[in-house]
Design goal:
This protein is mostly helical. Helices cover about 70% and strands about 0% of the residues.
């Protein structure tokens, strides 16, 4: 890997804006477990080792079981997630993979039916926030074992 200057150093205002988005998501009332599931699943899809490592460790510290963390990539086959969590994970996948057909009415409608429209929008903004972090960390080639204070 080449050494790239961190986004936080070269464009601190842009980096701060992503931090503000993160603060906004935290202010929406999005459940911390739900947000952690979003962060891990989106990071898996985006291939962000730094974020995946950080959020899996934080999930364990929050009391999330190893099984719930490990099974996220196969959540449809696991009976360990609630219907609300499954709706969140389906929405997370479609928003993360937006170029592959957008967000279907079925997935969006199920999320709204189970979570309400405001909470569904908070989920979408959570996916947007972690996707921004994933793209920054991947582009900056931040190592998995990098100091967590980077973000």
């Amino acid at each position: 890997m080449s050494h790239r200057k961190p986004t936080s150093e070269l464009t601190p205002k842009a980096f701060a804006a992503v931090r503000e988005l993160e603060k906004y998501v935290a202010s929406t009332g999005l459940d911390k477990v739900h947000y952690k599931l979003i962060k891990i699943r989106a990071s898996q899809i985006n291939g962000c080792g730094f974020c995946l490592d950080m959020h899996a460790r934080q999930a364990r510290e929050m009391g999330m079981t190893e099984q719930r963390i490990y099974m996220l990539s196969a959540w449809r086959e696991a009976n360990i997630y609630t219907e609300e969590e499954k709706a969140i994970l389906a929405l997370t996948e479609q928003v993360t993979l937006i170029s592959q057909g957008g967000v279907s009415d079925e997935v969006y409608g199920r999320a709204v039916a189970l979570l309400g429209e405001e909470y569904t929008k908070a989920v979408v903004m959570g996916v947007v926030a972690i996707s921004a972090w994933n793209r920054i960390m991947i582009t900056d080639q931040v190592a998995v074992n990098a100091v967590e204070s980077y973000v």
